[in-house]
Amino acid sequence: MRYDYNCLLVLLHCLNHRLELAVHDSIKDIGALNHFKSFIDSLYVLYNASPKNQNELRNVCNELDILFLKLGRVLDVRWVASSWRAINAVWKTFPALCDHFCNAANDSTKDSKTRNKYLGLKKRLASPEFVSDLGLMCDCLQELSILSNQLQERTTTLIQGQKHIKRTIRIIESFKVTP
Asked: Organism's domain of life (predicted)?
């Protein structure tokens, strides 16, 4: 007699999807994240809607010997790993973004409204609050991205999934204690 193992299979994609839903619910409860998200989204629009701006940023990255990374949307409908890549791109290109904003704010060929926009972007980007939020988001999303990828692996069992989740909770809770 053949035993049907299909009834014992549990797809962890559902568990990973629940992780995504939990992340999105948490975002709604934290008002400050909406400001952070909207600023990151404004960077995304600035560079993805304008090839000229993207080329200028790429040139600044080359001058500073920084790897150019395309900016993406954050905490959107995509997986947490996509948000981590977007935040990581801002983190790694941070000096180039600051330089590009300074250059654009001082560019006499741009009108005063555009120069002021870049000056405001630079002030927001270089503010201690934003840098702190960016670092924290980078750390949290990196851990959640690792968890998301682990839960998506076909070889992950339910017991392993639970261990991965508990490990991630411990790490993120340690951020409260250890800066």
From this structure: Eukaryota
